[in-house]
Amino acid sequence: MRKSRLSADLPSARRAPLGVSHLVISRRRLDAAKAAAAHTRLTRLRKAGEPALSAADKEALVNIVAARTGKSQQEAEQVVDNYARAYQQAAEQVKALKEQAEQQAREAAQVAASNVSKAAWGTLVTLLIGAALSFAVGRFALSSRNIPVIAE
């Protein structure tokens, strides 16, 4: 006979066929399932980047907090509201920091583009000056060259 993991955790003296321990095991399984569901919901919210909890998610979390902590429904709602408020504030901070980083990146890109443009213009001017000097030196060399006259 195969034992479930939850029933294996209970001492053998406390095991009963379908009595109180069966209800305890069922309750533990239900709590574990609710915790897994809450974790799944929170993971989905985090991945979706949703800034607020939906009513169904909030109600589920309130029920899970109340069941796992033994707090009243009102206290559990307050805990979930505090969580939702903290999550909302964190999401807003992340959004603000993201916008600030994007703005700084744009400004840095603008400065870099400006500097590259200035360097390109400087290179063009240098090349044009070099071409003009080469032309002038070449003309001078041709005009000052002694061409021997060969008489035939």
Could you list some keywords that capture this structure?
79% helix; 152 residues; mainly alpha
Structural topology:
Elements: H1 5-9, H2 20-48, H3 55-69, H4 73-143
Helix pairs in contact: 2-3, 3-4
How would you sum up the global shape?
rod-shaped
Helix content: over 70%
Quantity of strands, as a count: 0
Separate helix tally: 4
What is the typical, i.e. mean, pLDDT? 78
In whole angstroms, how far apart are the ends? 127 Å
- Which structural category do the helix and sheet elements fall into? mainly alpha
Largest sheet: none
By oligomeric state, this entry counts as single chain
Please mark out the parts with pLDDT under 50 across 5 or more consecutive residues, or reply none. 1-20
Radius of gyration: 39 Å
Order of helices and strands: HHHH
Strand content: under 5%
Task: Explain what you see.
The chain is mainly alpha-helical. The chain has a domain at about 5-105. Helices cover about 80% and strands about 0% of the residues. It has four helices and no strands. The protein has helices spanning about 5-10, 20-50, 55-70, 75-145. The longest helix has about 70 residues, at about 75-145. The chain is rod-shaped. Residues about 1-20 have low confidence and may be disordered.
